[in-house]
Amino acid sequence: MNFSVLMDAVYNGKNFIEGLEQIKAVGYNAFEFASWWDKDLQAIQAAREKYQLYVSGTVTKTFELTDPARRREYIVGLGQAIAVAQMLGCNTLFTQGGSRVPGLSPKEMHQSIVDGLKACIPLLQYNGIMLVVEPVNTLVDHPNAYLNHTKEAFEIIDQVGSPHVKVLYDIYHMQVMEGNIIDTLTRNIHNIGHFHIAGVPGRHEPYTGELYYINILKAIQATGFQGYIGLEFYPLEPPAIALQRFRDWVRAAGLM
Questions:
Q1: SS3 of 12, please?
Q2: Hey, which bits of 97-164 come out as E strands?
Q3: Which CATH number applies to 2-252?
Q4: C-alpha 58: how far from its chain's center?
Q5: Which pick of 14, 114, 156, 229 has the fewest CB atoms within 10 Å?
Q6: Distance CA 25, CA 5 (A)
Q7: At what angle do helices 16-26 and 239-252 cross, to 10 degrees?
Q8: For residue range 110-161, what is the model confidence (pLDDT) as tens digits?
Q9: Which residues make Cβ contacts (< 8 Å) with residue 60, sequence separation at least 6?
Q10: How far apart are CA 203 and CA 188, in angstroms?
Q11: What confidence score (pLDDT) does residue 211 get?
Q12: Which residue in the list 32, 64, 134, 205 is annotated as catalytic?
């Protein structure tokens, strides 16, 4: 299976470049990160080349697909994010659906996401980029987000109808909102482009909490999924120790 480390979470508040050296030393070959506009991209690119790491994803400039008035802003920002992705040899961008917009109904916000994603297809197709849309939890982390269930996320992907637009299935978020993880991912794997995982509750190491990720990862593997599973957790232990423990845990199960 292909695992990547989401640096903004695992190395939150720590030196990004030193973190890249650590993840390589521990046995990981890929990483992903969030806000690229406040980072030294040249240093990241140099470290990526030095340690022979793959960038499995980064984010769009804005997430506000729910607001038709901000669609041009979203598409301009998408173009900027694509340029960053290409610089880093990355072909996947992460987005969310956006915040709830005062005065718009759920139906209108849903349609705005669909229309916005359709408007992105020419840019994505031309540049060979996959955009993955993440439903997030509104109970703990993102109270004002609109897209917070997989059912609607997969409906949106079907309505957009492009292989360049899929779902980022964040298992932590969806366990908080709805559970039923293995059945949901198995039935919808054709519309999933990327995964994120963390322990529930707390968003700590995946080997903590109520989810037994070994079984979940085996279910993902059984589908033939070839994409990346991003480790987006906030470790209780030092990052290198947490990553090594996770690596050893999944390796013992034949998953790495």
A1: coil
A2: 130-134
A3: 3.20.20.150
A4: 8
A5: 14
A6: 13
A7: 30
A8: 999 999 999 999 999 999 999 999 999 999 999 999 999 999 999 999 999 9
A9: 74, 77, 78, 81, 93, 94, 95, 131
A10: 24
A11: 98
A12: 134
Distance CA 233, CA 78 (A): 26
pLDDT digits (tens, 9 = 90+) for 5-54: 999 999 999 999 999 999 999 999 999 999 999 999 999 999 999 999 99
Question: Distances in Å between the alpha carbon of 57 and those of 34, 87, 91, 118, 223?
Answer: 8, 12, 7, 20, 22
Is 64 in the active site? no
Burial class (CB in 10 A: 0-12, 13-18, 19+), 97: buried
Residue type, 6: L
For residue 130, give the 3-state DSSP assignment.
strand
Q: What is the mean pLDDT of residues 203-229?
A: 98
How much of the chain is in helix, strand and coil states, percent to nearest 5?
A: 45, 15, 35
Across all residues in the chain, what is the average pLDDT? 98
* 3-state secondary structure at position 27: coil
- Look up 108 and say whether it is catalytic: no
How many separate helices (H) and strands (E) can be counted in the chain? Answer: 10, 8
Strands 130-134 and 92-96 turn out to be: parallel
Tokens coding 193: 């482009």
Contact predicate 109/101, CB 8 Å? yes
